Amino acid sequence: MAVGVLAAVLLAGCGDPDQKLRDNAAQTARTAASDVNTTRLVVEQLQAHRLWIQPARRMVDDAEKSLGTTADSFSTQQPSTEQSARLYEQVNSTLDDAVAAVTAVRIALGNSDLAAAERQLAALQLSGEDLDQVGELAK
Amino acid sequence: MKKLLGVTLGILTAIGGFVDIGDLVTNALVGARFGMHLAWIVLVGVIGICLYAEMSGRVVAMSGRPVFDLIRERLGPRTGLLALVASFLVTLLTLIAEIGGVALAFELASGVSYLLWMPLAALAVWLVIWRVKFSRLEQAFGLLGLLLIVFAVALFKLGPDWGQLLHQATQLHPIGHEGWATYAYYGIALFGAAMTPYEVFFFSSGGVEEKWTRRDLGTERTNVFIGFPLGGLLSLSIMGCAAVLFLPAGIQVGTLGQVALPVVVAFGKIGLAVVLIGMFAATFGAALETALSCGYTIAQYRGWQWGKFVRPREASRFHVVIIVCLVLAVLTLLTAVDPVKVTEYSVVFAAMALPLTYLPILIVANDPDYVGRETNGPVRNAVGLFYLALLTIASVAAIPLMIITKAGA
């Protein structure tokens, strides 16, 4: 039992570092895409007058916090090859764009400025698509 | 006519009372990540809870004594203590999650932080337990919880491809990026949510509160065999809504607001109002049930006077246990721990405690000293043992799967 656990731990630590970063990036992107798409759905419902601003603020607040945690967690990764460094930069940049778009929506809703929130829809759509692409990396 | 009304009311209460924060969060979360590929677990869980709730109700109707009292007497103080500790801790964790759920529902509606609502929610739970009659308390929140049927209506309104949903439900495997370990982990969580131990303790203790006798066996069985499966359909509709709206959009459910979103998409602001009241009723009702169950389990094990059928002064220690548990719930939530995360963990830990809860019930339901001629027949025992094997597998696998999957991440 103990030998099995030790072997599993050692094997887990000896994986291809590029692959590990790719897997991590994909997982991070899928989680981030979820928050971006939630924000987009909320703004679309607001736009269609199907949702009150109060719960919308709450939902976007939650999405922003979750996205911030996800982005912070990925930024602590250690890329060890040139290829993984490029991926690291690309994912961080995509996450920054996503955080910026969601934060802009949160600020707009905080100011009850629905027009400003709606203007972020295109950015949210783009961020979601970029994150979806990164999310497919692990396949 | 009066009897029919009573039976109908019992069924409606059972449906509305079936769904709690664990069911709301777990079903939405699973639907968003796996579509309907884990729907079969809800079916397995509902059959299991019907089986064991009927057994515990029968024990109460035949013996006039609550299940935990009999567990201690039949299995001895040590084994009884093991069952008590496991069930009590899981019920306490569930109570924390339910109080958090009530506060989150208010936060969504008002925008005021759940940390401010939570002490008020706990105080309201205590006041209702202290002042309101058992039957009124059970019926009021059970019936109000029926508003969650809005999920079933929303599922129709979202216009899903029913063939696709059915196809998903018959494919018992993970999809996309999800692995078998995550699939199994969430399967156990769903199983734990459907078979939460407090449901049985509340159901059987409620039988004593309402003074069930042999003549009430028919009503008890109708409530269980019609009310719980319809409650299970409600769970499936929550999962279905998430499968239709969130799965294609790549949205993972991590907040109570997200659970409500499919209803918003289907019905707009009115739908949101209905679903928020339903969520409040479901979580508040379950908070009452779990708080009472904390008191029931300890008081029944210790042989103290318990229940709402006596004045609070006569069951003071029972009420003190409830107050202490509510204070513990508030203190835990004041650490700003995410109530949704507490919910996710509570259903998995519930799965771990299931054999310790249900094995004693199976034993007592076979003892003619307590149930007379109403002991389990061979079929019930065979199914009961099969479920016990399932519960044991789920219990043993829960922690390793939690570690391997990083709690389903």
From TrEMBL, chain A:
Protein name: Uncharacterized protein
Composition bias type Polar residues, residue spans: 67-85
Organism superkingdom: Bacteria
Renumbered residue ranges of the record's region Disordered: 64-85
Automatic annotation (TrEMBL), chain B:
Pfam families assigned to the protein according to its UniProt record, in alphabetical order: Nramp
GO molecular function: cadmium ion transmembrane transporter activity; manganese ion transmembrane transporter activity
Protein name, as recorded: Mn2+/Fe2+ NRAMP family transporter
Subcellular location: Membrane
GO biological process: iron ion transmembrane transport
Principal location listed in the UniProt entry: membrane
InterPro entries listed in its UniProt record: NRAMP_fam (IPR001046)
Alphabetized UniProt keyword annotations: Membrane, Transmembrane, Transmembrane helix, Transport
Cellular component, GO annotation: plasma membrane
Bilayer-spanning residue ranges: 40-61, 81-106, 112-129, 141-160, 180-203, 224-250, 318-337, 343-365, 385-404
Cross-referenced PANTHER family: NATURAL RESISTANCE-ASSOCIATED MACROPHAGE PROTEIN 2, SOLUTE CARRIER PROTEIN FAMILY 11 MEMBER
Topology in membrane: Multi-pass membrane protein
